[in-house]
Amino acid sequence: MKSGSARSKKLCGKMRTFLPAVAEQLFGDIQKNYEETTQIPDDLLIALKFVFGTCALQALDLVDQRSVTCLSSPSGRKAFQVTGGSGRLYTCFLSCHYCPCPAFTYTVLRRNQGLLCKHILAVYLCQAMAVTQQESVSDQQMSAVLSGTEGP
Ligand SMILES: [Zn+2]
């Protein structure tokens, strides 16, 4: 018996927040389990795949590689930098739910087919598992990051 992967990704409600309640709860459960056991149980992994599709696995890879860094500046700004598989650095903002990668632009913004890309998902997972690398930057550096003018 093969279970067909039906791709019914219709989301109800137009006034949804960045994440549906089911996703919020999933991250909460992951956080709780990871705090207690430093592992994500199989049922939660399956739920992750169910809610986020293939990008769940890619995001978990990014988490394993500790690819997520939280930059914070003295003035209290925060941005997340995720090193993608190709070594490219993506700056994501949870506060405005944005990632500059092509997948986010096409899948999330244009076609409204997904909730988020693997980078943003990786940020949420790293936050839930408390494995985000922390880095303090100056306000000046943060401005450069926010305006996308940071050097390589
Ligand atoms: Zn992305």
TrEMBL record:
List UniProt keywords, sorted A-Z.
Metal-binding, Zinc, Zinc-finger
Task: Give this protein's Gene Ontology molecular function annotations.
Answer: zinc ion binding
Q: Which GO terms describe its cellular component?
A: Shu complex
Q: Which residues form the SWIM-type domain?
A: 90-128
PROSITE patterns reported for this sequence: ZF_SWIM (PS50966)
Q: What is the superkingdom listed in this entry's lineage?
A: Eukaryota
Keyword Zinc in the entry? The reply is: yes
Pfam families in the cross-refs: SWIM
This protein is called what? Zinc finger, SWIM-type containing 7
Query: Which classification does the entry list for the species?
Result: Eukaryota, Metazoa, Chordata, Craniata, Vertebrata
